[in-house]
Amino acid sequence: MLLWQAIILAIVQGLTEFLPISSSAHLILIPDLLHWPDPGLAFDVALHLGTLIAVLLYFFREWIQLTLCGLGFHYPKRASEQMVLQNQRLFWYLVAGTIPGALLGFFFEHWIEENLRNPVPIACAMIAIALLMWYAEYSARLNRRLEQTSLGDSLAIGTAQALALFPGVSRSGITITTGLFRGMTREAAARFSFLLSTPLIAGAAAKEVPKLLKLHHAGALDLPQSTLIISIAVSAVVGFVVIAFFLQYLQTRTLKIFIYYRLAFGIVILLLAFLHLGFAR
User: Fold this and answer.
1) In 3D, which of 169, 157, 126, 92 has the Cα closest to residue 259?
2) Which end of the chain is more exposed for a tag (fewer CB within 10 A), N or C?
3) Rounded to an integer, what distance in angstroms lies between the CA atom of residue 244 and that of residue 248?
4) What pTM does this model have?
């Protein structure tokens, strides 16, 4: 894969990891449609490292507060007792919400990768989640803030996050939609979604980085090291900007544009697949 192709895919990863339009769908289908070579495991790890850096940097202060309060510290010292208790609850709710995705990933990740990375199931998932997002937009109350999050919210959203292993579902799409069904505001649902995604993205990176290092030591990297470093940086910068933009966007706007995009994307992919056009495999 050429450097400019890697940069384009890094931009795509940074955009689609946090917008509710499915990064896995785009990263599987775009190279396939354009007949680009498979970038391999190392490149996939690099892109996820980039978006992990983005979410860690954006929520760095928040994670410090949540973690210290969750472990029983009064932080920061000037914070009220109520704020410390809110952060403590939210930390453990995030821990609880991470469990369903971790379990599903542990038991079914390889099966999903082998059986559901094809255009038709991806397109169907894009359309199905779009319709679910549309129903949530028009039926949910959207009046609960992040500090009103409950254990039930965390378990429901965490269970939904587990479904994001299926290409085309979208981690942010399914978790934000579930948050809306639970009555959360759009901005609160997105913020909780991004916080909840951090441990799983970190876990996936931690799992794959040793494989990447092993390939490096063996001299068997699929791509030059410089390409991987540039891809990580581009993915991180784009991801950081997208998080900031999306949280601001949802304070005053709806998910309609993403619903329309998912529907159009899914329909086009189905048409191409049924007409046997465009795909390399």
Assistant:
1) 126
2) C
3) 6
4) 0.91
Indicate whether 279 belongs to any domain: no
Question: Is residue 45 in some structural domain?
Answer: yes
**pLDDT per position as a tens digit, 222-255:** 778 888 899 999 999 999 999 999 999 999 999 9
At 18 the three-state DSSP class reads coil
Compute φ and ψ for 56, nearest 5 degrees. Answer: -65, -45
pLDDT tens-digit series, residues 193-229: 999 999 888 887 787 777 777 766 766 667 788 888 9
Q: Please provide residue 114's backbone torsions phi and psi, each rounded to the nearest 5 degrees.
A: -80, -25
Q: Look at residue 280 and tell me if it is in a domain.
A: no
**Domain interval for residue 232:** 3-274
CA distance 134 to 117: 25
Total of domains in the chain: 1
The residues, any chain, with a CB within 8 Å of residue 270's CB and separated by 6 or more, are 119, 120, 123, 124, 127
In the numeric block, the tokens 């966007």 are attached to 249
CB contact at 8 A, 11 and 197: no
**DSSP characters over 139-195:** H----B-GGG--HHHHHHHHHHHHGGGSTTS-HHHHHHHHHHHTTB-HHHHHHHHHH
- The H or E element that residue 254 is part of is none
